[in-house]
Specification:
Length: 359
């Protein structure tokens, strides 16, 4: 009797790491249907696959909206997303239907923070561009201003969203000799901020005073497009902007204009809108843009030496874009898949989930 009650059908929207799939298959009483591909499930296949299922394990690239929920029917009990973000889920509709939601916070914090720091360093120290110069013969001799970038020592770092990932980023940047941390968000977090002596400031001040800005906030109606024209206009001309949160937090047209017009020095993104970013997107053309500004380390001075192309080597526009790989370590992705599976199984059994999103 108990076994019959536990017999459930679930749909998995992608080929996930083997550890997670094994957790589902070894649970017993759980029939798994999977879209067996590394590519996203087509919409029609998603609607067909979820029909009549009690559980759904999805990814952040799957839009789970009213149409999907209607296709699933009233028997859908649990949605487990293999992500820390949940902006792809129609939470209002899900809550109305009494569906439980599992997600995977914490387990990807370190990997994403590491990637954020790597992206910041790659952008401000012009690493991808330097590698290209070695390959294409641009490296001719040592030159005083060639490939100069910006250093973290004695700088001001602003963090937009001092949550788990924001804290982990600050923790990793502090040993670089950062002079001061600023943070902005929905409310101050004095106990957390004390570790970094970070000051809670309005977002306008964060933009105006920071040498480096790292965006790690969640995507919400309040944060959507929050990094816009006004934000970039307030930033220093020699400041560096990094986003590893969600693409929609940034108005990409405004970011493009800020870079082209020299309002900011550089930008590094691990997230975009849409994903993947089309290869003909204007942002990707910035690798060919040239600025006429050379400078010294941020921490040493705000002084900028303006030169003509004839007087010194030109400075290519510093723009680094990555394909949303913040959590892309083998350990992290395996752990995420197992947590997503365990969330799903616990929800189907009516038990507490390891990580449940409380609606």
């Amino acid at each position: 009797m108990r076994t019959a009650r536990w017999a459930m059908e679930v749909f998995v929207t992608r080929r996930i790491p083997a550890a997670g799939l094994r957790a589902l298959s070894e649970a017993g009483g759980c029939t798994v249907q999977q879209w067996d591909s590394n590519e996203p499930v087509p919409r029609a296949e998603l609607l067909a696959g979820v029909a009549g299922k009690q559980g759904l394990l999805c990814l952040l690239s799957d839009r789970i909206d009213k149409e999907v929920l209607d296709a699933a029917g009233s028997g859908l009990k649990v949605i487990s997303t293999m992500s820390v973000g949940f902006d792809h889920l129609a939470l209002h509709e899900i809550k109305k239907r009494g569906i439980r939601v599992g997600y995977t916070p914490d387990v990807l914090t370190d990997a994403t923070a590491e990637l954020s720091v790597a992206l910041l360093l790659a952008t401000c120290r012009r690493l991808p561009e330097s590698v290209e110069e070695v390959k294409n013969g641009g490296w001719t001799t040592w030159k005083p201003l060639w490939m100069c970038g910006y250093g973290l020592s004695d700088s001001i770092v602003g963090i937009l969203g001092l949550g788990r990932i924001g804290q982990a980023v600050a923790r990793r940047l502090k040993p670089f000799g950062v002079k001061k941390f600023l943070y902005a968000g929905s409310h101050p977090k004095p106990e957390i901020a004390a570790e970094f002596q970070a000051e809670f400031v309005p977002i306008t001040r964060l933009a105006e005073e920071s040498d480096f800005i790292v965006v790690t906030c969640a995507l919400t109606p309040e944060t959507q497009g929050i990094c816009n024209k006004d934000f970039f206009c307030r930033m220093k001309e020699n400041s560096v902007f990094i986003n590893t949160s969600r693409g929609a937090v940034v108005n990409q047209e405004d970011l493009y204009n800020a870079l082209v017009n020299g309002q900011i020095a550089a930008a590094g993104l691990d997230v975009t809108t849409p994903e993947p970013l089309p290869t003909d997107h204007p942002l990707l053309s910035l690798k060919n843009c040239v600025s006429r500004v050379e400078g010294c380390d941020l921490g040493q001075s705000s002084f900028l030496l303006h030169t003509s192309v004839g007087q010194a080597d030109s400075l290519s526009m510093r723009f680094v874009i990555l394909p949303h790989i913040g959590s892309a370590t083998y350990t992290t992705r395996n752990t995420m898949s197992v947590l997503a599976a365990n969330n799903l199984l616990a929800g189907l059994k009516g038990e507490p989930m390891p990580s449940e999103l409380l609606l």
